Amino acid sequence: MSVQELIRERPSAVQAEKIRFRPDIQALRALAVGLVVFHHLWPTVLTGGFVGVDAFFVLSGYIISAQLIHELNGTGRIRIADFYARRVRRLLPAALLVLTSVVVAVHALASQDRWGDHARQVLASALYGQNWLLGAEPVDPYKVTAVAHFWSLSVEEQFYLVWPLLLLFLFKLRAPWARIAATTGLGLVSLLWCVRLTESDPAAAYFVTQVRVWEFAIGAVIALAGTRLALPKALSTAALLAGLALLVGSAVHYTGLTPYPGAAALLPTLGAGLIIVAGTAPGRRWHTAVTSSKPVQLLGDISYSLYLWHWPLLILMPLAVSGGVLDTPVRLGVLVTALVLAYLSKRFVEDPVRRWSVLTGSTRLTFAAMVLGLAVVGLAVAALL
């Protein structure tokens, strides 16, 4: 992104870009999406790779909070409409492309008795309410749709919708420690709710928003603490190693039988938090050659698109090439195709729309484009039905 484009996006967006493309943040994003994708492709090998989603929640809480805090400290307010418009330009183009592609592929490949399930969930995904739909009814493993993974994107979008307004309220508390305490308290309430609901209704606990708030709160607290959490080199290394052990260890040892999220989600989320804190230390580290390498940074860069594409391909590609059998060649084909589509959609859809001067210069046009895109998906769903 050029300097001129950053200026057009306003100072808060400049700060967001600096954080989002911080090498350690990109590396954590690459690790998280790698865990999720590998788990979905080879669930018996990496049984707990689903914890990568929790790492993404912590990352989102940190990045969005740091952006908003920078704007609040600089101007004393948040341009709410501008914030929402930036989220639309960042997230919606690739998401709508995938949803429309899924409708077309389902019509061509899936049996007609599955069209209704897909149509309903595509519409819920486009409106970012997929998690509530899945949380309200038992998930039938034999009727999993090609857009089931949108549940986590729905949770994130609901966080984006509410958090700026809540942060504005928190900044009425003049003392920084009071904001940190209030956010921590909110997170603890959500965590206790999460533990309780995981015991009584684990299906709902996995999807509904209120029991995932504490994961975003971890990232938000780190952002609110800011330089107070800056670590010297030795402690930074220790925090990184501990964070990796917690996150990767959870991915290796957890299984589908682990009561989740519940208290078990503390390990990967605290691990992600430690990795973020470790990255605030200046200078090169022993891992810099790896984490800042082009492959790792590229994977972090396309992580959003990769997450979007991999699951529909995993569900639909076997119907096209192997009669529904998900054997090793098909799994490898899904992985390669997802990587290629992620790169192409990042380069030719995500970035061009996000930088398009017509939209960056007008929040109204951005929201109008959003309505138009949702209408296209709605028409596609109607045609499928």
Keyphrases for this structure?
385 residues, 0% strand, globular
Write the SSE topology:
Layout: H1 3-8, H2 10-20, H3 23-41, H4 51-75, H5 80-109, H6 115-126, H7 130-136, H8 150-170, H9 176-200, H10 202-207, H11 213-225, H12 233-253, H13 266-278, H14 288-291, H15 294-301, H16 303-321, H17 328-355, H18 357-360, H19 363-384
Can you summarize this structure?
The protein is mainly α and 385 residues long. It has 19 helices and no strands.
The pLDDT mean sits at 91
Number of strands: 0
Describe the sheet with the most strands.
none
Count of individual domains: 1
Summarize the structure in words.
By secondary structure, this protein is an all-alpha fold. The chain has one domain (3-384). 76% of the residues lie in helices and 0% in strands. It has 19 helices and no strands. It has helices at residues 3-8, 10-20, 23-41, 51-75, 80-109, 115-126, 130-136, 150-170, 176-200, 202-207, 213-225, 233-253, 266-278, 288-291, 294-301, 303-321, 328-355, 357-360, 363-384. The longest helix is centred in the first third of the chain and has 30 residues, at 80-109. The protein starts with a helix and ends with a helix.
